[in-house]
Amino acid sequence: MPALPSWLTEPLWDQFVALLPERSEFHPDHPLGCHRRRISDRIIFDKMLQLLRFRCSYEAIADTACSATTIRSRRDEWIQLGVFARLKQIALDSYDRIVGLVLDQIAVDGSITKAPGGGEVAGRSPVDRGKQGLKRSGMTDGYGIPLGRVLAGANGHDSPLPAPTLDRLDVLGPLPDDITVHLDAGYDSGKTRTLLNERGPHGHIAHKGEKAPIRASQRWHVERTHAWQNAFYRLARCYERRTTVIDAFFDLADTIITVRSLIRRAWTTHRWDERPNRRP
């Protein structure tokens, strides 16, 4: 069963392979000039998509095409090269150029998920009987396109997270002069308002103790994006222990979400050779 439909996998792979360095089929340092052939990058890429989507273990996804050790080593190699982060940035730039990011309306919110294996950014979850959990402070534009995230332990408070989360806006280039940041009641504090006043954006913060419809502000966009991310089961129940690996899987998921939204929204306004026959 494919992890993603071909209309989404193929453009992802075309851009991903363009970021990889040239590698010889055999290792050049082998004394006899021959060696076992290097496993195709496309095989590892497809395995990474399956790991992200289905949350299976490396040993379970390994087969005669490649071993679990090969998947891990190639993953770490790509992380060291910064391929996942660059792929996400290219997807954001493409979306901004074709559709346009809604950067005058920013939504920030946190989400707690399970982290049974613990790890560098795991902590005791207050909503899961003290089991190990992971909190992410996510930021989206006014449509729900993921712009960045900050990872922390599930036992951490939300108040220290908006500052490093909003720092992710620096890589997006020119920003609108008037930006509104939508936050839920968990950020209803003087510390958050002082932070926003120092940085310039206006804050639209829900008040504690006051019930409001979910669409009372633009905050629901980030909550929908959390649901999109949790549809990738490796993020909803994370067994990875290293922060760099978790960030790589999040970058890959954010790239998929961005490209999927780009194809769906551009389907009625643009034409290209591999355009799906019907709207995805």
TrEMBL record:
**Protein name in the entry:** IS5 family transposase
Q: Entry's Pfam families?
A: DDE_Tnp_1, DUF4096
**Which residue ranges does the record assign to the Transposase IS4-like domain?**
105-242
Domain Insertion element IS402-like: where? 8-87
Which organism was this protein described from?
Streptomyces iconiensis
